[in-house]
Design brief:
about 260 residues; alpha/beta; TIM Barrel; 11 helices; about 45% helix; about 15% strand
Length: about 260
């Protein structure tokens, strides 16, 4: 598997640029630029770029994926390029064409507004197995978007996944409530189960400057976090560079 160069002991920050594209798509002016956003974040120290090109093109579009791949190949060849989406919709076309460092398989429908659940086993095992095998044969690492259910982790490994991305909306929603400790404990247990099964560990969805550090302090060994909505919201106020640096500090504080 092709792997970017960063310390295995450090959680990598992958910036999801979907919401930059969403704003751009409201007009025909080409601004804000997805490529310029990527350049600013990478120059500030981000270790990865994530895109989720949905079939309806509501935000990231096919040309964005190609433009970002060209940018990374030319200027940042060791930076992680993570393309995520449903492998039974349009994702595999991008995987075949771009051969990114990582493909994150997400079981979203074409109509839902955002990802809201992970894969289920054994129900999804047989249909996932061949697309995972195809991506890995192309040299692409495969991560499966998963709910924090420890019993599912060995099954994710059994179908050929390299990593899982823990779906963290439940954690984010629990912050400041009476359920926070119990919810976080489930993520800790799921992470340990994933690592015991031989899986790498990613996390994403509704992570923010407010909740990232305590999550990483509790859930040890997270190799990559993918952050989009909160990141772009912060960048509207702080700018791309300051926002990237702020999230990198959150990660450093967890270590």
């Amino acid at each position: 598997m092709s792997t970017p160069a960063h310390s295995a002991a450090t959680t990598a920050l992958s910036v999801n640029l979907n919401k930059v594209a969403l704003v751009r798509n409201t007009r025909q002016l080409g601004i804000p630029s997805v490529v310029a956003a990527a350049e600013a974040c990478l120059a500030a120290g981000a270790q990865g770029i994530t895109v989720h090109p949905r079939p309806d093109g509501r935000h990231i579009r096919a040309h964005d994926v190609h433009d970002l791949a060209a940018l990374l190949a030319a200027k940042w060849p060791s930076v992680e390029f993570n393309i995520e989406g449903n492998p039974f919709h349009n994702l595999m076309d991008f995987v075949r064409a771009q051969k990114p460092h990582q493909a994150t398989f997400v079981p979203d429908s074409e109509t839902q507004s955002t990802s809201d659940h992970g894969w289920n086993f054994p129900e999804d095992a047989e249909r996932l197995r061949p697309v995972i095998a195809e991506a890995r044969a192309l040299g692409v690492r495969v991560s499966l978007f998963m709910d924090p259910i420890p019993e599912m982790m060995a099954a994710a490994k059994a179908v050929g996944a390299d990593r899982v991305e823990l779906y963290t909306e439940g954690y984010a929603a629990s912050r400041g409530t009476a359920d926070e400790a119990a919810v976080l404990a489930r993520y800790v247990e799921a992470a340990r189960a994933a690592q015991a099964a031989g899986l790498g560990l990613n996390a994403g969805h509704d992570l923010s400057r407010d909740n990232l550090t305590p999550f990483l302090r509790a859930v040890r060994g997270v190799q990559e976090v993918s952050i989009g909505h909160a990141f772009v919201a912060d960048a509207l106020e702080l700018g791309y560079v300051a926002t990237t640096q702020a999230y990198l500090r959150c990660i450093a504080d967890a270590a």
